[in-house]
Amino acid sequence: SLSVQDEGNAVEALAMDLALKAGAMIKDKSGHALQVDTKESRFDLVTEVDKACEDFLRNQVQEKFPDHFYLGEETATEKELERLRSGLKDSEWTWIVDPIDGTLNFVAGMPLSVVSIGVALGQNMEIGVVYNPFNDELFYARRGQGAYLNGIPINVLPHDTELEDSTVSVGFPSKPEWRLRMLEAIGKVAPSARSVRALGTAALHMSYVGAGRIGCFFEHNLKPWDVAAARLIVEEAGGRVTDMNGNFLQLTAGSILASNGGVLHDRIVQLVSD
Ligand code: IPD
Ligand code: CA
Ligand code: CA
Ligand code: CA
User: Fold this and answer.
1) Which residue(s) pair with 274 in the sheet?
2) Which residues define the annotated binding site for Mg(2+)?
3) What residue spans in the chain does CATH classification 3.40.190.80 cover?
4) Name one Pfam family in it (predicted).
5) Which atom of ligand 1 sits closest to the CA of residue 102?
């Protein structure tokens, strides 16, 4: 059997290859989905392309690594989620996949959606890949080895960057009960920020934090697949990812804050924590 290092290399190669392939499927069909269905509410959509991408990714992973655990947005069962909640075993590889992050953009034909593939070894994210097929940007990180955009190392903004000099990015949850809390949080931060962006994909926002394009990102009630890959990209780029109270973020996710890790992080926590 393979050493952990060799298996990691094989996982990394597959994750990148699959992100590029699924990305091509998304780009091709953007704005042309044939079947748009609702999930938990009429604000929460899924298309045949989300499902086809996920089936493709799941089948490929299970074919190449039959003993790995796979968790993806469109196929996750309650039992699989429970396995994540109850804690992953130390030597276990777990793929945490969002086939399309930014489904609403995808449905509308706005070129802002990504494939997000995160792979954990035990409880730690080991590999993170976020691919935006619309401008061919591949964000990538491996634990302990830095973060990259199309092969070039990326870094978060300097740690002394203040809120007044940072663009802040936010998400808008689909669940009505989380929307008011999100607007409250935005209301506390926005008056002092350089500006505010909401691009409709958590994984892309976080990758942009890693690349130093924006200072931070926060959103309530995110799911594991929204953040698994990109949290490693932020951390390996020198940033910090916590919950919105500044505490350790579990793989199960929830309310999250990703930032350059300096004074900005503490300031946002101070403003939005409960
Ligand atoms: C959504 C996006 C969006 C965020 C939502 C997520 P999806 O994921 O990341 O930016 O605001 O909370 O659910 O459904 O497009 O994969
Ligand atoms: Ca979704
Ligand atoms: Ca998502
Ligand atoms: Ca999705």
Assistant:
1) none
2) 73, 98, 100-101, 226
3) 163-272
4) Inositol_P
5) 15
Domain 163-272 falls under CATH 3.40.190.80: yes
pLDDT for the residue numbered 236: 98
Nearest to 203 by CA among 105, 71, 69: 105
Q: Tokens representing 129? A: 């890949």
Is 101 an active-site residue? yes
pLDDT tens string 92-142 = 999 999 999 999 999 999 999 999 999 999 999 999 999 999 999 999 999
CATH homologous superfamily for 4-153?
Fructose-1,6-Bisphosphatase, subunit A, domain 1 (3.30.540.10)
User: Among the options 54, 74, 98, 219, which is catalytic?
Assistant: 98
Domain boundaries for CATH 3.30.540.10 within the chain:
4-153
pTM: 0.98
Q: What is the pLDDT of residues 55-66, one digit of tens each?
A: 999 999 999 999
Find out whether 268 and 257 touch, Cβ atoms under 8 Å.
Answer: yes
Alpha-carbon gap, residue 207 to 148, rounded angstroms: 10
Indicate if 165 belongs to the active site. no
Tell me the pLDDT of the chain averaged across its residues: 97
> At a CB cut-off of 8 Å and minimum separation 6, what does 240 contact?
234, 258, 259, 260, 261, 265
- Ligand 1 first shell, C-beta below 6 A: 73, 98, 100-103, 171-174, 200-202, 219, 222, 226
Active site residue 73: yes
CA distance 227 to 231: 6
159-208: per-residue pLDDT in tens?
A: 999 999 999 999 999 999 999 999 999 999 999 999 999 999 999 999 99
pLDDT at 274: 81
Ligand 4 being an ion, which residues bring their Cβ within 5 A of it?
Answer: 73, 98, 100
